[in-house]
């Protein structure tokens, strides 16, 4: 069973095309509606996705962990993390899964910087993402070309062992950091990212750092 987990918050205009594109590459699509106030859940359900609803907005990390709990329940062999806003290209999924299997890895992380298909905004490419790479490397000891990319594939062992505790965007750093401590093998794979909106800016990046540092001190 190859399960796509799609965390979604008010993505009714785009969620339909995302779900349709995924069904060509995975066995089942799970949409975790994270407290949407629009028709995201209805659209997803009508297109054949399984839908779990958070009654309040908890954050993308919490939505992904809800998806992991569902994956453990159904015994999924692989899970795909895939954003609901149409930024990713489902055509990258099959090749990524093949690479994960061939290299006998536990987690595959997408990278915008391993080919030239993604037009990354200047501040993201030259400021936000390099800072993220430095935090990964010197604080958590993880060497990655792309600090925060929501395209991931995890195998069954990683699904069972890796529990996400960061409810919001800091989960993107927590996942590889925890994976390294658990001695799970991580690889990267080129993926295309198309920006419809700017996404997380400098303020969002600072919130990620704050959440991560707080979590280290309270444990």
From TrEMBL:
Q: Which UniProt keywords apply?
A: Transferase
Q: Name one GO molecular function term.
A: transferase activity
Give the matching InterPro entries.
Glyco_trans_2-like, Glycosyltransferase_2, Nucleotide-diphossugar_trans
Q: Where is the Glycosyltransferase 2-like domain?
A: 5-160
Q: Name one Pfam family in it.
A: Glycos_transf_2
The record's annotation in CDD domains points to: DPM_DPG-synthase_like (cd04179)
The record's annotation in SUPFAM superfamilies points to:
Nucleotide-diphospho-sugar transferases
Q: Which domain of life is it from?
A: Bacteria
The name this protein carries in UniProt is Glycosyltransferase family 2 protein
